[in-house]
Design a protein that fits this description.
Elements (H helix, E strand, L loop, with lengths): L14 E3 L5 E7 L16 E11 L7 E15 L12 E15 L4 E7 L1 H7 L7 H4 L2 E7 L2 E7 L13 E4 L20 E2 L7
Parallel strand pairs: 5-9
Antiparallel strand pairs: 1-3, 2-3, 3-6, 4-5, 4-7, 5-10, 7-8
């Protein structure tokens, strides 16, 4: 794991993102769950999968972390924005969401995941399946007890706050249990915090 106070890590943080592989993106096809509908003509079935890799640091003195919240920003562009400074060039946006894992056991290799639906990719990421990594960045922040412990950018930026000026588009970054991937990789990720559950 990263050394103390590396990159975006807070001093004495109990967790840290893993080196250069802190965030990986891929495109995955949803498993068949019995839906016989044909969908919209020309639809692509590729979801964006954003996986983040992290682990415990020597600062963590117990074998468990009660809860870790991850806040996610995925860069995109809204070509339909009516207030674009240059017509047709769109407005820079960030698809935002979060996921909280509970009862996280200490390990050097722990993973989390979020997904973006194919229709959102088509709208905000120009269906960039072949060059998504080159065109768009992903920013993830880890919080324990409401305090930011570490952050990671898939494409390292000179400005660590590059994502903040982007127009936030909430509600389009899904947790695993909100997707057809609910029953995949069931032992790879910690338990999800249920909506409305006390922390």
């Amino acid at each position: 794991m990263a050394a103390p106070a590396a990159y975006g890590q807070a001093k004495d943080s109990p967790i840290a993102f893993a080196g250069s592989g802190g965030i990986t993106t891929s495109f995955v096809t949803a498993p068949s769950v019995g839906d016989a509908s044909a969908g919209y003509p020309g639809d692509n079935d590729q979801w964006l999968k954003v996986e983040f890799h992290y682990g415990a640091t020597p600062a963590l003195k117990t074998d468990w972390v009660d809860a870790i919240e991850f806040k996610v920003w995925i860069e995109g562009i809204d070509l339909l924005a009516k207030d674009a400074l240059v017509p047709g060039k769109g407005v820079a946006v960030a698809l935002t969401g979060s996921v909280t894992y509970v009862n996280v056991r200490v390990n050097k290799d722990i993973y989390g995941v979020v997904y973006v639906h194919p229709s959102s990719l088509a709208r905000y990421c120009e269906r960039s399946y072949t060059d998504f990594d080159r065109k768009f960045n992903v920013h993830v922040e880890a919080y324990v007890g409401g305090t930011k412990m570490d952050y990671f950018d898939k494409n390292r930026e000179k400005d660590p706050n590059w994502f903040q000026p982007l127009r936030a588009v909430p509600g389009l970054v899904f947790q695993q249990n909100q997707t057809p991937f609910l029953l995949t990789d069931t032992t790879r990720y910690p338990a999800l915090k249920l909506p409305g559950a006390a922390q």
